[in-house]
UniProtKB/TrEMBL annotation:
Gene (name only): RMDN1
Primary localization class, coarse: cytoplasm
Family membership noted in the UniProt record: Belongs to the RMDN family.
Keyword DNA-binding attached: no
Protein name: Regulator of microtubule dynamics protein 1
Tagged with keyword rRNA-binding: no
SUPFAM superfamilies given in the database record: TPR-like
Native organism taxonomy: Eukaryota, Metazoa, Chordata, Craniata, Vertebrata
Amino acid sequence: MAAAGVLHRGTSLMRMRLLFQAPRARLGWWHPTHSGRGGSEVHGKPRCFRKGLAFSVLSYLGYEAYVLMSQSSMVHADDHSDILDQADYLYGSGETEKLCHLLEQHKNSENAELLWRLARASRDLAQLSQTSPEKKKELTYEALEYAKKALEKDSSCFAVHKWYAICISDVGDYEGIKKKIANAFVIKEHFQKAIELNPNDATSLHLMGIWCYTFAEMPWYQSKIAAVLFATPPSSTYDEALRYFQKAEDIEPNFYSKNLLFLGKTFMKLNNRKMALLWLTKAKERVAHTEEDKQVQKEAQELLNSL
């Protein structure tokens, strides 16, 4: 689940961000068991293009050359495949600003696949360090609107539910604590729906695990605060979180450094030192591709030192 800057240790109910730092370059690739595009995204790997030629051209000439070629080919108004291919290439390459520029040209589209990608791109742009606080807030709410529209257009797409949940989580930073806790129920519902639509998407399972870990970790006095606001506040257990993290890893081993880290952290909470050592070591030794991976390595090392 987890999505927006993720679970900090010592999470406070009044400050926690429900929920997640979405795994970069993972959230919505085509899966053969699901109609339409948008299945499991693989960290650091561009999507498998439906056109073998497109992949070959991209490999050798890059995005700009591909755009020139695609512009010279016949593209029907109702065929979004080339746009989606370009968008997925840019996303996999980390070209956030170019991706937003491409997709914003289609912000009035009725195509859910375009809209959830636009929600993702707007959110990613909001997360960039150079984005001003005012612009970040604007982009965060825009992302939610795009995700909401995508959901209205196609509620059968698992990636739509996943990104709708992530975007709801993000706006929690700008709304009151009561709204934030209420949103936790909505977030859980849509991650569960994403998993129902595509049980083999490791990212949805991971994010659901983050949701469970968040509320399992909540201290008793914070639970009391939540109970004042809701008769039945959100709750979970470490065992439940572990099941989601483990299932994600079973489906796609080593797919995301943070899943390895949270497996280790969850086993620590369950007082299983042997398994905690195993997974924290995996997290520490996994090759770092991003800043987030480096942060995971650092935290894993600190936790190993404490065992």
